[in-house]
Amino acid sequence: MLKKLWDIFFGTKGRAMFSGLVCFGLVSEAELLTHRHISIDVFYFLPIFIFTWFGSRRQGLLISAAGLVVWLLDERLDMGHILDHLHIIIWNSLVRLSFFGVTVVLLDQVKVLLARERSVSRLKSAMIHTVSHEFNNALTGLSAGLFLLKETDRAAGDGTRAQLYSAMEASQHKLSLYVKNILNEARMEEGRFRIEKRPLALRELAEGAVESLAELLQQKKLRLTKVFPERPLFVDADYEALSLVISNILGNSVKYTSEGGSIRIKVEESGDGSKVIFSVSDTGIGISLEEMEKITSGFYRTQAGQSAAAGFGLGLRITNELLGLHGSTLQISSEKGKGSRFFFELPVYRPAPERGKKG
Ligand code: ADP
After folding, report:
1. Mutate-to-test residue for ligand 1 from 224, 295, 307, 343, highest number of ligand atoms within 8 A of CB
2. Model-level pTM?
């Protein structure tokens, strides 16, 4: 009993009621102090909204009842002879109470719907993350197995087997690029993506990407030109992120350039020597001006792109996001039907000179 009373006055319900009355009191007081008629009805909704939204439906209804009490007290002061105006008071009370009640119920429903929507989206994102993580692990195992098989198979060089291995490697590469993009997008959405910067030679990363695409390049009989600087140019970046950026850009050029076309991958220093520019140019299907703005926004694929190859439209979005984490952005110049150039710039990394060393 004592506990019940304590709960009513000092528990969650009691606190809600008390704070609500304080809110109403403040509004009434403001009216008295300023001698102006403040449309108090509108202000009734403020505490009702706050308590329903941040508390519960029950708290909202309690505050509605408190609002009614405050109104009655206000009116009684104004009307003097309460009994003469009883019917007005009863009628008004009923209208107010039902109006407040409907507001509370509707607001609470919106709140429940939003919470459900949020939890479904969190669940989806967690599921995508788990599935792609598992896929990634399985793919790593498969690619290691494939590599060992190829290395130890004496007949690996013979025509049919060579073709088989190359087809398997190409599929494995395509699949792992998709999985990595999905995995990173999920991480990015959850705000869990962390980059760890360290000095990286862009040329080596580019060589790595070319090597992993060798099978696809061969399959499509594409001519690849590499234009790399003599001495390595370093950038301060995350290894995994930048590898994925380069694989996506180069992978797309391979995907969207028809057989016999050519691709050029270039790493160069900017005119003033402050930046490294990485670019991939191709003689592929190209992109029109209005489509260029859309392809990095995610899940957008050009008409020509859809007929040329399969895809999700996620690679360039994650590429741009990853570059954004490095303070850079993906730039595109292209002409429909003629080819494209995808490029980005990063500041040249120069180690700080060691202090105290002479000569
Ligand atoms: P996906 O290749 O899986 O569709 P991306 O985000 O990598 O996803 O690319 C988005 C779209 O941009 C592609 O569907 C294609 O229409 C277009 N695109 C990307 N790279 C090229 C390119 N090198 N040449 C022509 N179109 C391209």
Report:
1. 295
2. 0.70
